[in-house]
Specification:
By secondary structure, the protein is an alpha+beta fold. 35% of the residues lie in helices and 30% in strands. It is flat, with a radius of gyration of 30 Å.
Length: 202
């Protein structure tokens, strides 16, 4: 009933038979009252706690819980806000760092894009490996010797050199341009042929 009534009022505004300000003045008080009532009477949903099974290493009192934030899930102390300890959730990829041999873990940027870094638990605690793609264990580029990565695009995965300056990338780019140019040439020939046939028939 409310929706139908509101639609009718908006139709009158569109027709010009009623001012939009008067419609809002009539709508808002009742709507605001309903929102206030819902805020006090509707039961709030309590999300079940997901315990990690470890004590907070900072305060040694709280339990570590998995929480949901604006950038995804993370681990935090149950004593928040008294204790503000947090840590990222480590997602193992199964791959190994091509620089130091330690494990490669999955991370997420603030924009929600996945990237991969060394967990820095190996022989080099300051390893700076970082990549948008997962490195492939034991696979190296035949041209420059850099590690290969598994790249995903349009539902498919393929291996490429991890060195963006490698000549293999330039070859692929040139190949793609040549392919595109060839397709364009074919379309042009078909168009010319079609035009010629039309002129001949005329």
């Amino acid at each position: 009933h409310f929706t139908a009534s509101m639609e009718g009022e908006l139709d009158k505004v569109e027709e010009g038979s009623k001012e939009w300000t008067s419609v809002l003045q009539g709508f808002y008080p009742g709507f605001h009252e309903l929102v206030e009532k819902a805020d006090t009477q509707v039961a709030k949903i309590e999300m079940p706690k997901q315990e990690v099974g470890r004590k907070c290493p900072e305060c040694n009192e709280g339990d570590l819980l998995i929480k949901e934030g604006r950038f995804g899930k993370f681990i935090a102390c149950s004593r928040f806000p008294e204790c503000r300890y947090t840590e990222a959730i480590v997602v193992e990829t199964g791959a190994h760092c091509p620089q130091c041999g330690s494990n490669v873990i999955e991370r997420k940027s603030k924009r929600g894009r996945l990237f991969y870094t060394c967990d820095k638990k190996g022989k080099d605690a300051n390893c700076d490996f970082i990549s948008w793609n997962v490195p492939v264990d034991g696979a190296f580029c035949e041209v420059c010797g850099t590690y290969m990565v598994e790249k995903r695009a349009r539902g498919q995965s393929y291996r490429v050199c991890g060195n963006k300056d490698c000549s293999t990338h330039a070859k692929k780019s040139t190949s793609a341009k040549s392919s595109s140019a060839a397709k364009g040439s074919k379309r042009s020939k078909k168009s010319s042929s079609s035009t010629a046939e039309t002129e001949a028939e005329a």
